[in-house]
Request: fold
Amino acid sequence: MKMKLITGAVAAAGLMAISATANTAHAGTLDDVRAAGELKCGINTGLPGFAFTDDSGNWQGFDVAFCKALAAAVLGDTSKIKYVSLTGKNRFPALTSGEIDVLSRNTTWTFSRDVDLGFTFVGVNYYDGQGFIGRTKLGVKSAKELDGASICIQTGTTTELNLADFARDNKIEYEPVPIETNAEARAAYEAERCDVYTTDASGLAATKATFDDPENHMVFPEIVSKEPLGPLVRQGDDQWADIARWTLNVLINAEELGITRANAAELAKGTDNPAINRILGSEGSMGEMLGLSKDWAVNAISAEGNYAEIFDKYVGPDTPLGLARGLNALYKDGGILYAPPIR
Amino acid sequence: MTAGSMGDISRLWRDERSRGVIFQLMLVLGLALFIAFIVSNTIANLQSANLASGYKFLKDTASFDINQRLIEYSSTSTYRRALVVGGLNTILVAALGIAMATLLGFVAGVLRLSPNFLINRIVGIYIEVTRNVPVLLQIIFWWVILLALPKVRESLKIGDTIFLNNSGISTPAPVFLEGFSFVLIALAVGLLGTFVIARWSRSRQAATGQTFSVGWTSLTLIVGLPLVTFFAAGQPLDWNVPVANRFGRLRGGVSITPELIALWLALSVYTGAFIAEIVRAGIQSVSKGQTEAASALGLPRGLTMRKIVLPQALRVIIPPLTSQYLNLTKNSSLAVAIGYQDIVSIGDTVLNQSGQALEVISIFMGFYLTLSIVTSLFMNWYNKRIALVER
Reply:
């Protein structure tokens, strides 16, 4: 009898404890990250060039490099990161629930994600677009000639929507062959279960590079969608969004101003260029305005280098992906990469 | 508070029955509080995350395509329509799977008891291998086998009408012309006639012991009558034959995707093995005296199995069989691995587009719950019907 009463009391107390902790998740993210001593960064489960584990099991890649720059800016240490690898399906709940502080997982910035899902995109770190790859023996030179084809797609991504829109626009009837993972979609394409495979152009380049007979496949010229990929945070914490946004802008501005991983510490001692001085902290107090240390930008750039260094290291022409800068070149080099000034 | 009422309460407490009631009330109250807490906490957190809850998103345009549609659907349809298409695809594969698994299971279960060593062992190997390999692997196994079939341009074909390749099976589709309704009426008449004759024959056998061969009469009624009507009405039927397009893809007619076939085979082979064991156990539960009595009366082996053993075994078989049917239905959600567009696969896409995770998951749960309850109700009704009637 006594036992039962005690059990009941414990249960009731437990219930109250849960209610008490339920609403503490939305304090300042910066304080949370500092208190935890680590940045929880959401990344892909595995995408060549963007997020992959190296031989010793450490996460590397274009998207991972942003996590490192952000951790360096906030905590001054690139090793204090907890990587959470997420699928296309569970990435948004993970961010909403606070399981991660920032999502850097080749995620397309769209209206509904920004407005309806309650996120804030902090910028674009890769301008992508959806393309098609097909066998040369089909005799097709353009995606507009695909009427009657079977098309492999990855499910649960914006790819499905873009394909349906493109088909409606061009009056194409097709059989969608939706497959959950990139690996199985490729297997289906290679077995000729479908005639063409569609995904983001960066992914197509990576896929084509791994075929046994790349010369028998061609990427069609059409890019059927805009896919501005970038990191995002929860809506409602403007300070944290600013930190993430300006960390990305620092990397792009660093390329423009010629600040590299190698010379960042040296330049931080002071130069004749006021723009460089403001970024690196020898003039003004940009770091303090964000609630960070004075050398936040030096740390961010020292993590993996400026934008160009990160691009070349993971996805550029000398990597297996072999992607050209294209749209992702600086505005003065013919691309559309244009970061607001830091002043 | 007076001393009297205190006494009442302590009396209530001492009484074992009323104390039991009080504890149960407390438990119910506690549960209700717990559920209310979960619900209110979820709603509060969703609101603070700026997520609109509710099912209004179902009216939005889906904007994606589905390859297997049992009802009209296009990318301009709503999310609700897309989910209905997915639900029907789940029901289709579950129904096909249940039919095939039952057939396979009963045959294998009976053969498992065969005195023939070879048959007995072969069935034994089938059961042990399939029961002990995860069904997800079996689904992918069958899918990979089907992908290894000839490619579309090298299809195996029967007279340029039926094609088999690694994109599935394509067969001509019937096109019903004016006057086909007479054939359907004839079929209905045939079925009704068979039913009446079967009843009459059963009651006559019960009364007089004379048997009447229902088989041939019903065949004539069900097949012959509609066939005669068909020719009399001037063959009101045309065929839509699949034709290869410039990609070698077969369009027109009926196409069955390799994803559906793989899922169907995997689910029925897997569940069939469990059903075989249930059937074997059911048969062995019937006392040996029944079989001996039947053979003493001179009944042949086949008839003994059909008329004496199986009807009694069914009473043991049906309840576990029901749970196998439910398992099969729920396992069909593994379809997403090979891209069969069932409710989970389509729902995942809806979830990703709309971001309404909680709502979509609740739809999944409601759907499978309803499907399982309907299956159970039907099986319970059937179980009651065949249960031992005690006199």
Observations:
- Residues 130-225 of chain A form a domain with the D-Maltodextrin-Binding Protein; domain 2 fold (CATH 3.40.190.10).
- The first strand of chain A starts at residue 39 and ends at 44.
